[in-house]
Amino acid sequence: MKAISIVVALLGIAAIVIGAVFVGLGMSRNNELVQAMRQEKVALGIEQSDAQAGQVIDSLGEALKAGDTIREHRRSIAPSYSDLLAGGNYDPTNPKQLTYAQAMNLENYLYLAVVAFGLTQAVMGSGAFMVLTGLALVGTGVVLYRVTQKL
């Protein structure tokens, strides 16, 4: 019984360490993503006064809102890429097609940021859960060890 309590406690310590690594990695990647987005200085959907003060899109919610706005505007040019080309080929000298393509590029960038922010949050959440589970396992192992000492 003592061996089981020690194994449970050691598993708990491992879960705490791995969970802390997950939280740290998630936070690190989130910070890198925020810095990359700040370098791009995309301010679509940010209030004019905030944009002039340097506020840019640098969070999941802001990126999602801006991506949705761009999609709406892009679809006002043409409902789909196929409709835009009308059976022809892409012509980069056509301002309408060029604007549509640029909108698609920015929209994809913003939605990729949404996915990346979501992934970093999921990694941090998983890490926090591992830490809590590890604490519970360590506590269980300690209690089991104490109980076996009294027997």
Outline:
The chain is 81% helix and 0% strand.
Structure report:
There is one protein chain. The chain has one domain. The protein has helices spanning 2-40, 48-52, 60-77, 81-85, 95-150. The protein is elongated and about 85 Å long. The model has no long low-confidence stretch (mean pLDDT 92). Helix 1 packs antiparallel against helix 5 (95-150) and helix 3 (60-77) packs antiparallel against helix 5 (95-150). It has 151 residues and is mainly α. Helices cover 81% and strands 0% of the residues. It is built from 5 helices and no strands.
Characteristics:
151 residues; mainly alpha; elongated; 0% strand
Low-confidence stretches: none
Backbone CA Rg: 25 Å
Largest sheet: none
Supply the number of structural domains.
1
Coarse shape: elongated
| Share of residues in strands | under 5%
Give the termini separation. 10 Å
Q: Please give the number of β-strands.
A: 0
Average of pLDDT: 92
